[in-house]
């Protein structure tokens, strides 16, 4: 997911960014209400994490403004404020959830995942299934035999492309174009490197080799069903 973090506390900002990036998310940060509001209005994010107390304003106004401008991106508020009326006020101006500081990083991720699931429009594809392997398209994670496996953005995008083209021989040129949107360079080995990363994470939970190498042609993704 592409996530915007609007937080002036450098310690909290660094922690949240590190936790999110560890889960394979792409994170942008803003330290002020003005910068955060502008980023939210000018870019397409999957999630916004918003502090209430900012040096040049407050989270209430930011949330209300982006909602008035038609931004429907889910908003999770992080705040040291414990009062019920504070939570009600920010929820009433458009926030989707509220997490009190200090917080546990696992609870933060669980709340983001829950918001993401609720925010998926009806009819939008939520998962891909291939035998005992599933891909959660909302949480951006791989599930093998009920074991959740976190992937980097490149690993995740590579797996999704394989699963959507299962049973088909895919060349390195095709992967370079459709996964990375670049022209294939025969002098680089990055595609093989990411396939190796993906295989390694799979083999921690299964002996089945989903990705088979086809000599001089590329790769083929096969299900275990």
Description:
The chain has 225 residues and is an alpha/beta fold. It has 2 domains: 2-119, Response regulator (Rossmann fold, 3-Layer(aba) Sandwich), CATH 3.40.50; 127-221, Orthogonal Bundle (Arc Repressor Mutant, subunit A), CATH 1.10.10.10. It has helices spanning 10-22, 33-42, 59-68, 84-92, 105-119, 153-164, 172-179, 190-203, and strands spanning 2-6, 26-30, 47-51, 53-54, 57-58, 75-79, 97-100, 127-130, 133-136, 141-144, 147-150, 169-170, 211-214, 218-221. A 5-stranded parallel beta sheet has the order 2-1-3-6-7, with helices on both faces. It has a 4-stranded antiparallel beta sheet with strand order 8-9-10-11, with helices on one face. A hairpin with a 2-residue loop joins strand 10 (141-144) and strand 11 (147-150). It is elongated. The two termini are 30 Å apart. One of its GO terms (molecular function) is phosphorelay response regulator activity. Residues 2-116 form the Response regulatory domain. This is DNA-binding response regulator.
